Amino acid sequence: MRASDRAEWLVSINGSSKTIRGRIGAGQEPVFDEPTVRVVNLSGINGNMRNVAGMELPATLFGRRRFKPGEAIDFASTFLTHGRAYRVEWKGRFLLNK
């Protein structure tokens, strides 16, 4: 399956004009336009539509050298499934674990 046909994941970081864009799923490696993010993905093939994924966003994307315990970060995430059949969005301020 072409990357453009796979599920799309968009992440916007507060204070940045750039949206991180990537494609996941179809049993293939994740493809993202931001080389500093790390993405892991477990996806189904042959009609199994499972898609479990995680993304690590480095502190430098938030304009910091490193994160500190108790610090808050703001970002938004949008996930569009294959064929844009479903859309899941969430955004907020997240307090980092102490």
The ordered H/E elements are EEEEEEE
Task: Find the structural class using helix and strand composition.
Answer: mainly beta
Shape: elongated
Q: Which runs of at least 5 residues are low in confidence (pLDDT < 50)?
A: none
Number of strands: 7
What percentage of the residues does DSSP assign to strands (E)? over 45%
Largest sheet properties? 5 strands, antiparallel
Strand order of the biggest β-sheet: 3-2-1-6-7
Kindly report the average pLDDT value: 90
Output the radius of gyration. 14 Å
Quaternary structure annotation: single chain
N- and C-termini, Cα separation: 42 Å
The DSSP helix count reads 0
Portion of residues in helices? under 10%
Task: Give structural notes.
This protein has no helices and seven strands. It has strands at residues 7-13, 19-24, 31-32, 38-43, 51-56, 72-80, 87-95.
List the helices and strands and how they pair.
Blueprint: E1 7-13, E2 19-24, E3 31-32, E4 38-43, E5 51-56, E6 72-80, E7 87-95
Antiparallel strand pairs: 1-2, 1-6, 2-3, 4-5, 6-7
